[in-house]
């Protein structure tokens, strides 16, 4: 699978009104084009960000990560946005193992302290995941008892 640089814009920029009205259209178009450019649908998305300040590499291992609104001063509705995408605990552990093999220490945070960052992580991915794939993924997780009914 290819790697992508995912621009995150200004926090929840894709869900706000702007002047000019098309201020974020090109970025949103790029994000929406990602699924069609892939050879197959991804099983998971590994997001690498420098937005978290931590003494070592920190991985989110939550099956259902919450939201972290790391921005301020935006319209009230932007703090109600949700992206209930499933996490990938097994992938987090695999990445931790690969890093360890390379001599890089890391920790995996669990469901109690792990969240998706609104600006960099969740909102751009909302645009870059095909709705049908998201719906199918939720059904699979529900059948496996990993998501609410």
Provide key terms for this protein.
34% helix, two-stranded parallel sheet
Summarize the structure.
By secondary structure, the protein is an alpha/beta fold. Helix content is 34%, strand content 9%.
Write up this protein:
With 149 residues, the chain is of the alpha/beta class. It is 34% helix and 9% strand. Strands 1-3 form a two-stranded parallel sheet. Strands 2-4 form a two-stranded parallel ribbon. Helix 1 crosses helix 3. It is globular, with a radius of gyration of 16 Å. The model has no long low-confidence stretch (mean pLDDT 78).
**Roughly how many Å is the radius of gyration?**
16 Å
Estimate what percentage of residues fall within beta strands.
5-15%
Described by strand count, sense and barrel closure, the largest sheet is: 2 strands, parallel
Per the principal axes of the C-alpha atoms, what is the gross shape? globular
State the distance separating the first and last CA atoms: 31 Å
Q: What is the percent of helical residues?
A: 25-40%
- Supply the helix-strand structural class: alpha/beta
Work out the count of structural domains. 1
Quick check: average pLDDT?
A: 78
Order of helices and strands: HEEHEEHH
Main sheet strand line-up: 1-3
Number of strands: 4
Runs with pLDDT <50, length 5+? none
Number of helices: 4
List the helices and strands and how they pair.
Elements: H1 25-37, E1 57-60, E2 66-68, H2 89-101, E3 106-109, E4 115-117, H3 118-128, H4 131-143
Parallel strand pairs: 1-3, 2-4
């Amino acid at each position: 699978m290819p790697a992508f640089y995912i621009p995150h814009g200004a926090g929840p920029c894709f869900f706000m009104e702007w002047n000019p009205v098309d201020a974020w259209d090109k970025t949103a178009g790029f994000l929406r084009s990602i699924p069609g450019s892939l050879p197959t649908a991804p099983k998971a998305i590994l997001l690498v960000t420098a937005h978290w300040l931590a003494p070592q590499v920190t991985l989110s291992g939550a099956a259902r990560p919450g939201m972290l609104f790391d921005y301020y001063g935006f319209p009230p509705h932007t703090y109600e946005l949700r992206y209930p995408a499933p996490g990938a605990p097994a992938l987090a552990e695999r990445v931790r193992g690969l890093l360890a093999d390379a001599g890089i220490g890391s920790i995996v945070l669990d469901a109690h302290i792990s969240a998706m960052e609104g600006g960099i992580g969740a909102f751009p991915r909302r645009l870059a995941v095909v709705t049908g794939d998201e719906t199918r993924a939720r059904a699979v997780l529900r059948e496996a008892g990993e998501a609410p009914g």
